[in-house]
Amino acid sequence: MTDGDPDFVGAKAVLLCVDRVLVYQRDDFAGLPWAGLWDLPGGGREGNESAQACVLREIAEEFGLALPERRLLLRQELPSMADPARASWLFGGWLDEAEIAAIRFGDEGQRWEMMSVAGFMAHGAAIPEMQRRVGLVWSALGRGAKCITGPTE
């Protein structure tokens, strides 16, 4: 399968800065999957968009950040949590401090945080599969080896 496969469900992103990861606490509505738990940016596919377009749209909607595709340094296909017979995509990349300062939280979720990776991995109210996915990206991108410091455009 490629990231353009018509059968993928959605995409998530692990966005790091040094040893912190961008996360948000999901709304606590009755019937909402993983209600009230800490999650990663991303969500479901709309129309025929690519996996990259899906995750970048979700980041823009949820956090007000317009990141270019080249900022997605890691791409991995995984089984969807909602339907393991279908694919989802995981992306990893780095944020800079200016982008973090520019975050404008959208209307989905209760709050956001740049949480320490260790804190997220140990958090009792984080979605366990998202903890595993953070671990995958954390290992692949060098365990906090950098945070972008120069121009990102």
Automatic annotation (TrEMBL):
Cofactor: Mg(2+)
Alphabetically ordered keywords of this record: Hydrolase
Stored SUPFAM superfamilies: Nudix
Keyword Hydrolase among record annotations: yes
A Pfam family the protein falls into: NUDIX
Domain of life where this protein originates: Bacteria
GO MF: hydrolase activity
InterPro entries: NUDIX_hydrolase-like_dom_sf, NUDIX_hydrolase_CS, NUDIX_hydrolase_dom
Signal sequence segment: none
Keyword ATP-binding on entry: no
Gene3D superfamilies, sorted: Nucleoside Triphosphate Pyrophosphohydrolase
Domain Nudix hydrolase: from-to ranges: 6-140
Protein name in the entry: DNA mismatch repair protein MutT
The species this protein was found in: Paragemmobacter aquarius
Organism taxonomic ancestry: Bacteria, Pseudomonadati, Pseudomonadota, Alphaproteobacteria, Rhodobacterales
